[in-house]
Design goal:
single chain, alpha/beta, 10 strands
Length: 250
């Protein structure tokens, strides 16, 4: 058939273009996100104002910088996010030489003053914090998280207007993980999920010379997630924070 050689040439050209993209890193992108969102893999990371924990206003793009950066979004009163803390710390420690890490601290998922599902879940959250009403209170909640969880990843708080958040995830979503390279989105998790294995797989492809020792692999899958109750008072922002006892046995 006369069209067969043409078709074969086109297929070979497409395969060659795909190989060149992967070799340059531009094609090595992954999208685990939900369809229809404004944040797309291959798009520029939206920029905006965020808050350092000392109260300074900084730009997200400035803190992410060039190269590979992993952006972790989460909050203290989300039990699922707290369960990912050990694995995220292991991920950051393992790839520290190649990628930078930064956290964006969000609104509380299950605050003390929330109704409906919050009231039901309050006994299982393990930490009792009110929903911030000012930037200073959100910073205080972020400081509490950093101190109690011994969190070492640099952390920024999302301002109360949440302008910077609008293109990163929908309002009220409790957590997400985004990987960018030179300001371009290369990987995004689904809304409300963090897949540490998927992030590790992307980073391993990007930095193939790093080994994967057994101790690191075990650290990505801790036997017990840190979602239990917090003992003692929280160190910062006492007016809008408190502790909650462990739920009674059923």
């Amino acid at each position: 058939m006369p069209w067969c050689p043409v078709l074969i040439r086109r297929l070979c050209a497409a395969m060659l273009a795909s190989s060149l993209l992967c070799a340059s890193g531009a094609g090595c992108s992954r999208d685990d996100g939900d369809p229809g969102t404004d944040l797309r893999v291959g798009a520029r990371l939206p920029d905006g104002e965020v808050l350092a924990l000392d109260g300074r206003v900084v730009r997200l793009a400035q803190r992410v910088g060039r190269g590979v950066a992993v952006i972790v979004l989460g909050n203290f009163t989300c039990p699922g996010f707290r369960g990912h803390v050990p694995a995220l710390e292991a991920l950051a420690a393992h790839y520290r030489g190649g990628a930078s890490f930064v956290m964006l601290y969000l609104r509380e998922s299950h605050p003390t003053d929330g109704g409906g599902p919050d009231a039901v879940l309050r006994g299982t959250v393990g930490v009792c914090m009110l929903q911030p009403t000012t930037d200073a209170e959100r910073i205080a909640n972020a400081r509490n998280f950093v101190a109690v969880e011994r969190w070492t990843i640099p952390t920024l708080a999302v301002p109360m207007d949440e302008v910077v958040l609008r293109e990163l995830m929908p309002p009220g979503s409790p957590m997400r993980l985004i990987i960018v390279e030179d300001g371009v989105v290369r990987y995004r998790s689904r809304f409300g999920y963090i897949d540490v294995d998927a992030a590790d797989a992307w980073l391993a492809d990007r930095f193939p010379s790093l080994p994967h020792p057994a101790a690191y692999v075990r650290a990505l899958h801790p036997a017990a997630a840190g979602t239990g109750p917090i003992a003692g008072p929280l160190p910062d922002g006492p007016r809008r924070t408190a502790t909650v006892p462990a739920p009674p046995p059923r």
